[in-house]
Amino acid sequence: MKRRAFLALPLAALPLAARAGALAYPEVAPGYRLEFPRDHGAHPAFRLEWWYVTGWLDAAGEPLGFQVTFFRVRPDFVTDNPSAFVPRQIVVAHAALADPRKGRLAHDERAARAALGLAGAEEGTTRVWVDDWRMTREGDAWRASIAARAFAFDLAFAATRAPMPNGEAGYSRKGTQPQEASYYYSVPQLRVAGTLERGRGRETVRGLAWYDHEWSSRYMAPEAEGWDWTGVNLDDGGALMAFRMRARDGTTLYAGATLAGAGAAGRAFAPADVSFAPLRRWRSPRTGTEYPVAMRVRVGAREWLLEPLMDDQELDARSSTGTIYWEGAVRASEAGRAAGRGYLELTGYWRPMRL
Amino acid sequence: MFRSRLRLLALALRGHWGWRTTLTVAGIALGVALGFAVLLVNRAAVNELAAGVRALAGEADLQVHGGRQGFDARLFADIARLAGVALASPVLELEVGLASGGTLRLVGLDPLRAARIQPALFGEDPGRRLELMRPDTVLLSAAAADLAPHGTLAIVAGLEVVELRVAGVLPASSLRGIAALADIATAQWRLGRLDQLNRIDLRLAPGADREALRARIAAMLPPGAHVSAVDAVEESSANLSRAYRVNLNVLALVALFTGGFMVFSAQALEAARRRGEHALLRVLGLERRALARLVLAEAAALGVAGSALGIALGYALARFAVGTIGADLGAGLFRGVRPEVPFPAALAALYFSAGVAIALVGAWLPAFDAARVPPAQALRAGDVERMFERTVAVLPGAALLATGALLAQLPPVAGLPIAGYAAIGCLLVGGIALMPWLAASGFARLPLARRPALALAAAQLRGAPGQATVCLAAIVASFSLVCAMAIMVASFRDSVDRWLDAVLPADLYFRTTHAGESAWIEPEFEAQVRALPQIGRAEFIRSQRVILDPARPAVALLARDGAAGARYPLVGRTYERRDHDPPPAWISEAVQDARGWRAGDRIELPLAGRNHSFVVAGIWRDYARQHGAIVIEREVYVALTGDRRANDAALWLAPGATPDAAERALRALPGGSLLEVAGPGEIRAVSLAIFDRTFAVTYALEAVAVLVGLFGLSSSIGAIVLARRREFGMLRHVGMTRAQIGEMLAAEGGLLATVGVAAGLVLGAAVSLVLVFVVNRQSFGWSMDLHAPWALLAGLAAGLVALAALVAWVSGREATGIGPVRAVREDW
Could you give the number of structural domains in chain B? Predict the structure, then answer.
C-alpha cells in the first residue's frame, strides 16, 4: 500500500466516472480468491495496479536502499478510435536508489501508453515493461531490469515463502466505505542477487527485499490527506506491513496491518490495533516540507521504532507527477534491539494528495 | 594643440550648420536606419523559426521526417527498439483547415514521450499530459487561443467538420505559431491517417554513435522519409524563407549604398565650396595634415550624428514593422508569430561604424585635396575644377562593368545568387565611376546654342565637367536603381499575369487545399460533381508533398486528371515519350534548378513509401510554389498508390450553365459548403493582390532609395550653384538679368539631369537584366519575360529632369539674391 504517491496525479486528472460516457470500473469487494500465478499478472479492467519492490542491498559491506515500482493505469474514457496508439492502458515506472554516501535519493522514471509493444502489462504472470525497463516473473523469482540516468540495476528476487495476503484474504480496506479498498498481497523476505551500476563499474550485490502487488478502482477516501506505510522484513524471518490513511486534520482515518511469523500465514489487524506516532521530524531544505522520518509503530501488543537509513529520502516528482513525498529505507528495532529492515512511505505532507 | 583643433572643428561645424548639413545627416541616418531595420527584422524572423524548430525538437538528437505522405507507424516501434535509441517520440503533424476558415498546425504526439524530449511543452503543468490523452482533446498555442472561443475547435477533415475539445492554452514558450497539440491517436483518427506518422523525434543513449545510428535508421526508412540531425532540420526550415530574406538584406544594402553615395557627393561639394576657406586656414598656419584631419573630423562628426540617429530610427522601425505586419514583412511566410526584437549591441555598433565610415570615405577625396593644393592656387576663383581632375579615368569603371557582366554568368552559391548580387554591385559602381569620363567627353561635344543663357549653360558644362560629375553620379545612382527595380517588378508582374491566364483555362475552380492538409474529396463526391448537369467536364487534382532532398523544403506533387502536362505553361524543350518509357512527369523550373533534371531524364519519385520511375516530359513555369512542383497523371498516381482522394478541381461548364448556378449546385452537395469555389477572374485578382502585398516592402525600399537619391541630387546641385555666386555677380556686371541667369541654371540642371537619366536608364536596364535572369531565377526558381514599364520610366525621367532644373533655378534665385557688387567682392 504505497506507490499511490506516484499515482496522485493520474487519479486527479482522471476523475472517477466524472464524464458522460466514462467507463465503469469493477469495484473491489470481499470474497475474492487470490490465485497464483494468475494474480501475479495484470488486472487490466481495474483502474490502478502496481507491482512494487523495496529492499536493502549489501554492496561490499555498504548498505543501500532501493525501490522499483511499475504502475498500470486505465484511463476512464470510452472511444471508437481504432488507432493502435489509443492510450487504453498507461504504464509508469519509477526507480530510486538510497545511497548514504550521497546523502539523498537518485531517482528516475518512465511512462508510456501500452501501444505497439513498447510498454504493457500482461495477464497471467508478472510481466510489465516500459521501453527497456521491465519487471518479470521467471520461475519462482521476479526480476527487475532498470537503466536510470544515475544508476542501473538488474536484480533477481527469489521467494523464500508463500505470498502473504493483506486484509481479509487479500481484500484490503482503505477507508470507511467498503468500496474504498484494494486487492493486496505482499511477498516478504525475498532474497536479492544481481548487479548494480552507480558510476563505479558493475558491482555484484545481495540483499533482502519486499514485493507488493495491489490493484483497485477506488483507492483513497475523499477526506484522506495522505498516508503512512511501512513494510519490514523482520530479522526472525517474519514480516510486518502497517499503514494508516490520514485525515486532513492529521488524525487517523483508517489503519491496517499484517504481521506474519517466519513461514507462517499473516494475521490481519483492525484499525484500532494499529497506530503510528512520529518520533522525529526532518525538514527538507529544498521544499520546506516536514516529514516524521522516525516513527513508533504499534501493531496489537507489539511496538517497533523505525529509524531512516538517512534523513533525506525525499522524492521530488513535481516535474513528472506533480507531487513530492518521502519514501525511504528504514531500520526497525523492538524493545531496544535491532529487529529488521524495511521501507517507510510518507505521503500528503507536502500538499494533500488529490485523489 | 588637440583642444585648439577641437575648437576649430566646433567653429567650423557651427559656422556651416545649415540645411545641407541637415540633409547630409538625414541621408546617413536614413541609409543606416534602413539597413539596420531590415537586419533586425530578418534576425527576428530567423530566430523565431529556429526557436520554433528547437522548441518542437526539444532535446532530440535525430529526427525522422516523412513529409506529408508520412510512413507506417510500425516503423516507430522498430526504431524505438534499436540499441542506442534512448527515447523515441512519435509525431503526426499536419496543417489542418478550420471550419471557421484559415488553417492551424495540428501536432499529434504522445504526451508522455514528448514531455521527456520537449520538457517545455508541459513544463508548467504536467497534469496536462494526461488531460491531452483523452479522446478528441487539444491544447492550443497562445497565438491560436482566439480560434476556439467556445471551448471547441472545429477542424475540417475530408469534407467533414470535427469538433475537438479545448483543454487549455499553452504558454507561448511551449508552442509557437498558430498551432494545437493533440494526442497522437486523436490526430491519426481525425485526420484520416490511421497507422501513419510523419515525424519521429529521437534521443540517443549517452555514448551512442549518432552518425552510425543515423545511417542504420536511414536504411530502415522507405523512400520519401529521411533522418537527419536536428540542426540540419533547423537549417532547412530557415531555408524556406532564406531567398526572400537575402533579397531584403540586399535591398537594405542598396539603401545604405545610395545613402553613402549621397553623403559622398554632399561632402565632396561642401569641401569644394570651402576650398578657399581651407586655403585660408593653411595660410594662417594650419599644417597640411592637420587640415586634412580637420576635414575628416567634420565628416566624422556628421557621420556620428547621422549614424546614431539611424540606429535609433532603425530600431524603432523594426519594432514597428514586426509589431504591425510581422517578421515576414507581409509576405505570409510566418503566421501568428510576433517575435521579440532584441537590440543587438554588436550589430548596432557595426552599422554605426559603417555609417561613419561611409561619411569618412565621402570626405577622403576632399580632405586629401585640401591638404595637397598650394593655398595660393586654391584661393583663386575657378580652381575647384582641379579637384576632380584625377577622377576622369575610363579604365576602373570599364573594368568593373566587365566584371559585373562576367559575374552575372556564374551559378548560385549555396542556393543564393551571391554572384548576381556582386554583379549588380559591380555594374552600379562601374557605371558611376564612368560618369566623370562620360561627363567630360559628352559635354565637350555639346553644341553652343544661340540664346545666351543656353549657350552659357553649355559652356559651363563643357568647361567644368568635374563639378557636374558629382551631380550626375547622384542622378545615375538613384535613377538606375529605380529603373532596375521598376523593370524587374514590371516584368515579374506581367509574367505572373500571363501565367495566370495559362493556368486558369477552366470556367470554375474549387479546392480543399485552402483548408491545409487535412481536407480532401472522396471518390463518391468526385462522382457527384461529375454528374451535376451544370458541369460539362471536370479535372481533379490530388496534391501531395514529397521530400526529394532532406536539406531542402518539400516539393509539391500534383496528380492531375487528363493530359496533365498540357494544363501548365511549358517552357523550353519538351520530350516526346517513347513506348518503353516510364510514365511522364512535368517539373517546375524550381525543381529543374534544384535537381538539375532536364526533359527526357528518368527520375525516381517516392510515392506511398516506394520509389517509382518517371520520365521528365517537360518543364513548366510556376509562380505559386517557390520550392518546386511536379505534375503527374492522376491515373498513374492512383495505380501506384491506391489513393483515390482529390483536393482541387477545374470545372468546365455545360452549355447554357452559368458559373453561379454551378457554384450553387456544388455547394448543395453534402460537404460542399466546406469547398472554396472561385472563378478564374477572382483567382487572378486575389493572386495579383498577394503579389503586390509581397512586393510592398520592395516598393517601399525602392521609394526610399529614390528619396535618398533626390536628397543627393538637390543638395549637390544647390551646392554647385551656391559656389558660383562670384560668377553670377560677374554675369550681372556684363549685363545678364537675374531671369537669364535663372534660365541658364535651369538649362544646366536640366541638361545634367537628362544625361544622368539617360545613363541611369542604360545602367538600370543592365541591372534589371541581372535581377530578372539571375537573381530571381536563382533565389526563387522563377523565370520571367522582360517587360519594361515605359510610361512609368518616362514619367520618372521627366520628373527627375524637371526637378533638377527646378532645384538649380531655385538655388540660383537664392545665390543671385545678393547684389552683384557684393557677390564679386566676395572673392577678395
Answer: 3
Mean per-residue pLDDT of chain A: 89
Report yes or no: A112 at the B interface, CB cutoff 8 Å.
yes
Q: Which helix (H) or strand (E) is A138 found in, with range?
A: strand A133-138
- Give every residue of chain B whose pLDDT is below 50, as ranges: 1, 331-333, 827-828
For the entire predicted model, the pTM comes to 0.70
Residues B478 and B439 occupy one common structural domain: yes
Contacts for B585 with CB less than 8 Å, ≥ 6 apart: B603, B605, B614, B615, B616, B617, B630, B631, B632
Contact across the interface for B184 and A83, Cβ inside 8 Å: yes
Say how far apart CA B123 and CA B145 lie, in whole Å.
19
Helix H, strand E, coil C: the string for B634-683 is HHHHHHHHCCCCECEEEEEECCCCCHHHHHHHHHHCCCHHHCEEECHHHH
Q: What is the pLDDT of residues B437-479, one digit of tens each?
A: 887 777 777 777 777 777 777 777 776 666 677 777 777 877 8
In chain A, which residues have their Cβ closer than 8 Å to the Cβ of B77?
Answer: 116-118
Among B224, B256, B290, identify where a domain stops.
Answer: B224
Is the pLDDT at A247 greater than 80? The verdict is yes
B416 domain residue, yes or no = yes
User: Are B756 and B809 members of one domain?
Assistant: yes
- How many angstroms separate the CA of residue A120 from the nearest CA in chain B? 13
Q: Does domain A4-25+34-346 correspond to CATH entry 2.40.370.10?
A: yes
CB atoms within 10 A of CB B140: 23
**The predicted structure's pLDDT at residue A152:** 93
Average pLDDT of the residues in A171-191: 93
Residue B144: half-sphere exposure toward Cβ, Cα within 13 Å: 32
Distance from CA of A81 to the nearest CA of B (A): 6
Q: Judge whether B605 and B614 are in contact, CB under 8 Å.
A: yes
Candidates B27, B150, B69, B48; CA nearest to B545 is B69
Assign B99 to helix, strand or coil.
coil
- The yes-or-no verdict on residue A14 having pLDDT over 60 is no
Q: Which residues of A touch B135 (CB under 8 A)?
A: 77, 79, 81, 86
Are B215 and B102 within one domain?
yes
Place of cell 487504453: A88
Whether residue B662 is found in the same domain as residue B728: no
Nearest chain A CA: its distance from B67 CA (Å): 20
Encoded amino acid at B207, one letter: G
Between B292 and A205, the higher pLDDT residue: A205
The pLDDT, as a whole number, for residue A30 is: 92
> B110 vs A322: CB contact, 8 Å cut-off?
no
Mean pLDDT, range A143-160, rounded to an integer: 94
Q: What is the 3-state secondary structure (H, E, C) of B37-84?
A: HHHHHHHHHHHHHHHHHHHHHCCCCEEEECCCCCEECHHHHHHHCCCC
In chain B, what residues touch A199 (CB-CB under 8 Å)? Answer: none
Cβ distance A90 to B74 less than 8 Å, yes or no, reads no
DSSP B515: G
- R_g of chain A, CA atoms, integer Å: 19
What does the pLDDT read at residue A5?
A: 41
Chain B: residues touching A (Cβ < 8 Å): 73-74, 76-77, 80-81, 87, 90, 110, 112-113, 115, 119, 123, 126-127, 130-131, 133-135, 183-186, 188-189, 194-195
Please tell me the distance from the alpha carbon of residue B115 to that of residue B250, in angstroms, as a whole number.
42
Greater model confidence, A133 or B35:
A133
Q: What is the mean pLDDT of residues A7-35?
A: 63
Q: How many CA atoms lie within 13 A of B825 on its CB side?
A: 5
List, in order, residues 6 or more apart from B397 with CB less than 8 Å away: B430, B431, B432, B433, B434, B435, B437
Chosen from A83, A108, A320, A351 to mutate, greatest number of chain B CBs within 10 A: A83
Q: Under a CB-based contact definition with an 8 Å cutoff, are residues A264 and A256 in contact?
A: no
ipTM value for the complex: 0.86
